[in-house]
Amino acid sequence: MKKLINYLNKGEEILASSLLILTSLLVFVQVVLRYQFNYSISWSEELSRIMIAWFIFLGSSMAVKDNAHVNMDALFILTSGKFKQILSILIDFINIIFCILIVIAGVEMIQSAIDIGSKATSINIPLYVPYASVPVGVFLMMIRYIFSIKNKILDLINGNI
């Protein structure tokens, strides 16, 4: 199981880093071409938006791993021990429910794009490719929350609070 998580961690990091680097390079090249050579790449802006969408949702999963999402921590400050751990597990369960709803909505969005046959205007790829960033990224977040709950329950059982 740890090997799977390590592969997931490494894969997300490599893919997210690659997307960020490629997007930055593409935007930089586009700006230089536009302002120095009065030439514009027609598809660069659309491709950049797609890569940014994938980067954001992969990054969201990585943020779950690092517990870096914005949260209300007033209750955590006021509590301690087992209650704090149980509250954290409850919040993770709520996040999983939210993730399930978003994955369902994302899959419906993809299905709609497939049914309509819509394509991106300048790069002519099916719109389900950028739309897939939503359910894929949120599904990865859900996996992270599941492992977080598992680890927190094990900590409760073993008394590692």
UniProtKB/TrEMBL annotation:
UniProt keyword terms in alphabetical order: Cell inner membrane, Cell membrane, Membrane, Transmembrane, Transmembrane helix, Transport
Compartments where found: Cell inner membrane
Chain segments annotated as transmembrane: 12-35, 47-65, 86-107, 127-147
One annotated Gene Ontology cellular component of this protein: plasma membrane
Pfam family, one: DctQ
UniProt GO MF annotations: transmembrane transporter activity
Membrane topology annotation: Multi-pass membrane protein
Record-annotated Tripartite ATP-independent periplasmic transporters DctQ component domain positions: 25-149
Entry's Gene Ontology BP terms: C4-dicarboxylate transport
Family the entry assigns: Belongs to the TRAP transporter small permease family.
Protein name: C4-dicarboxylate transporter, DctQ subunit
Species assigned in the record: Maledivibacter halophilus
